[in-house]
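job 3f2a | input accepted
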Amino acid sequence: ITNVSHDIRTPLTSIVTYVDLLKKEQEPAKMKEYVGVLEQKAQKLKLLTDDLFEAAKASTGNIPVHLEDLNIVSLIRQGLGEKDGEVVKTGLQFKLNVPDEKLMVRADGKLLWRAVENLLTNIFKYALPGSRVYIDMEELDREIAVTFKNISAQELNVPAEELLERFTRGDAARASEGSGLGLNIAKSLVELMHGRMEVEIDGDLFKAKIRLPKVMPA
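job 3f2a | predicted structure (218 res):
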């Protein structure tokens, strides 16, 4: 709570400061510059508060869940296509080890994509630029398991189990952007769909695995 309070206070302090400067400034170029900074800091503050709100809802189960039969192979492929711009920007190479046929899970499409999107955002922020990211899919007896693997750009100096807690980042120095809520939100969303999520660290290798109930044949 202390850490995230600091994260919220930092852009808020900047906003207060630049509003004060803007009220005194007469030069149009400077005013435009200050408005740009205000917009940037306000957007950061919005993202932090949105994450806080979503984390609170997810952890208390205060989110409508509409379970249906979904093809998780299609969802992952389509989602990566929508994120192509960010993939290109980071230079990451995504390697998909998924079957050509459908793998059906019982899940809420909107919540499942939000959980996957949080994992992808985590990869975009923390993966070593230009490295490979592996997405493996495995069909088990009663579950479908999807594993995301990437090499971290910075040393992972936080125990794996702590990364799933709220307000925890992979860099203890907290030098990176983000609220430290993404993985916790993803875990809570997966659990709302009666699934499980776990993370594992092996040196600089980070692995996150989602397990969801498989649609059993009639």
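job 3f2a | The first helix runs from residue 2 to 24.
job 3f2a | closed
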